[in-house]
Design a protein that fits this description.
heterodimer, A: 148 residues, five-stranded antiparallel beta sheet, 3 helices, globular, B: alpha/beta, Transcription Regulator spoIIAA, five-stranded mixed beta sheet
Chain lengths: 148, 121
């Protein structure tokens, strides 16, 4: 059974690096205003930032004529974000926590690793013509007297 | 709409270390400024053995910034000097620990702690 939606917000970003900072400021203000004790805000902000960067660079291929959308849904026991782009999408697979090999030149990006590691659930899909990455943050104990 | 805070670097020297004071956003824009400041693979001037990164005024870092730090630390291994950092928030310390960089990048709370440690070495 779906929990009651406490708050829904959406933002549309230009497809350029740095635009994600506006959204993460807005998310921080919103989450702190609802639960000033939330200890997961920084994790959320990093995940959103990384998902936006991936959307801009890999999804939209840095095309300035495209957009990234971010949707936030806050419920009693979880916060969900969807980060949309106009690209062809990718098949999500969990990233293994392979140790950094400092001696090796590696072109691996760390964005997806951070998204996977900091959020509680990740999945992808299509909504009309938008590809999205959806991330979940569970809130143990719910909104009131939450213990995180 | 907030965009990136320009990244900048200033440098200081001690007897046995080079200190980089970084400010602004540690993102892709920082790559050229930081990695092309010098040939990091070739070691530090005058045989100095320690590179210290002051991140006190870096308030935003993303995975591109982390990748830059990885490349810098990789160069320090090749150039036979050790890299330290201070001024990181708890969250960014956590991220660097998660990607495994803290095995090679020693993180302290203050510059004084680092200078005291390397003075003893």
């Amino acid at each position: 059974m779906d929990e009651e939606l406490v708050l829904h917000k959406e933002w549309v970003l230009e497809n350029r690096f740095g635009a994600e900072k506006y959204v993460i400021e807005q998310v921080a203000q919103t989450v702190y205003s609802i639960d000033h004790m939330s200890r997961r805000v920084e994790d959320m902000l990093t995940v959103i930032s990384e998902a936006c960067l991936n959307a801009m660079e890999h999804g939209n291929r840095m095309n300035p004529n495209t957009r990234v959308r971010v949707a936030m849904n806050i419920r009693e026991t979880e916060v969900r974000f969807r980060i949309y782009d106009e690209g062809d999408g990718f098949t999500y697979a969990p990233i293994s926590d392979k140790p950094l090999q400092i001696e090796e030149e590696c072109t691996r990006g760390w964005g997806l690793f951070l998204i996977t590691s900091l959020s509680d659930k990740v999945h992808t899909g299509f909504d009309n013509e938008w590809f999205y990455v959806e991330v979940h943050f569970m809130r143990i104990g719910g909104m009131n007297g939450a213990r995180e | 709409m907030v965009l990136e805070n320009e990244f900048s670097i200033s440098t200081r020297e001690t007897e046995n270390s080079m200190i980089l004071d970084l400010s602004g956003d540690l993102t892709k824009q920082a790559e050229e400024k930081l990695l092309q400041l010098r040939d990091w693979d070739k070691g530090l001037d005058l045989g100095k053995r320690y590179l210290i990164l002051n991140l006190t005024n870096v308030h935003y870092m993303n995975s591109n910034g982390i990748a830059i730090l990885i490349r810098l630390v990789r160069s320090s291994v090749r150039g036979s000097y050790q890299t330290f950092a201070y001024g990181l928030t708890s969250h960014y310390k956590k991220l660097l620990r998660m990607v495994g960089l803290t095995v090679h990048l020693m993180i302290h709370s203050t510059e004084e702690e680092i200078l005291a440690q390397i003075a003893d070495e």
